[in-house]
Fold:
Amino acid sequence: MMSSVQNMVGVIELADADILLDRHGRLTLEDFQKAFCQRLEDWLRPRDEMHYLGDNRVCVTLRGVGSSGELALATAKLESIFKNPHYQFGRPVQLGFRAGFASVEGDRQSEETLRQANLALREARANSSNYQVYTPHAETRADNQRKLLQSLEEALARGEIQLYYQPKVQTMYRSLAGAEALMRWRKPDGELVPAGDFIPVAEEHEIIRPLTWWAIKTAVARLARWPEDLTIAVNIAPQLLLDDQILAVVEDALAIHCVSPQRLVLEVTERIMVGSPTTMLAQLARLRLIGVQVSLDDFGTGYSSLSYFRDLPVDEIKIDCCFVRNMLECGKDEAIVKAVIDLAHNFSLKVVAEGVETEAVAERLKELGCDLIQGYFFDRPMPPDAFEASYGIHPPGLSDTQALRDHALM
Structure:
């Protein structure tokens, strides 16, 4: 009796289709989709199969490809096919792909196999790799994510999410200029979960919206209790700039608490340069028309481009801590810090240096003309009551949880 043949089922997508749409428009994207499918057809053998799934994705069945070595050879050929640019109206455009594969015995392709391939594709996106193969480990990770998301939704409803505040200090006089609001999750047993353990997962799912709307509302409510010269910065995930509700959330929060718009700082990262940059930059411009400030976080670590920088609708640049922390030991880091400060000031932008941990670094930043500094040398993020006590702020005793209950915008 002949043994069953192992096949690979793959879900392959046109990489960065949203960027192509933003830069070239819907009709041109359709041409790219046709070119993408044509290259896949050129890659497949006569015995393989392909059908379009929609949403820039194609399902393929690679017959007789059952081992990792055989798949590696197949994907190497696919990479070579996509190496050459596609020419649109005589101009080269680089097309790319991402793929997720799952093995199947014989012709028993099913919804489960397709689900596994899609899960592997999600892993490829998360790892910025061309392809991934489904493994039970990925299934476990996905299951853990689902449990985390469920717990996070319950935590938000129960008021377990808190905003901690880390001071931003004026470099010249060492006086308090404001704070950055950072999410923390305090579980019923007292365990404090850092934002880095749950925000990346939240950003991949819908829950990032209510979390962020809550953070904006809570930060503005806190501003209403603080002196007029203090600001609070709130981090905004890039995809939320595509959501027009953010304008309403910000305007309503400021109006309810009678807070001056310029006291709210919205921090975005350089990831706004990918995805739909034109749309995101336009949204930032609309937010600035409301009067709020916009800060570009982690500057220099991602997608910096002088062509974008020239027209960025921002008020502030934050130099990433990876350049600041060792700037006195590494001349290149210090040169980068100085160059960013000079460039930002030439565009009339304020500069914040993150990751300041020593007096010497703080003094050098003062010499370089940096406007604001932030880091453990001054304080770690603190609960609101501790922050206010430490800096002599004496607001009325309304808690963040009460503010959420009274004015939730979800």
Summary: The CA atoms of residues 239 and 272 lie 8 Å apart.
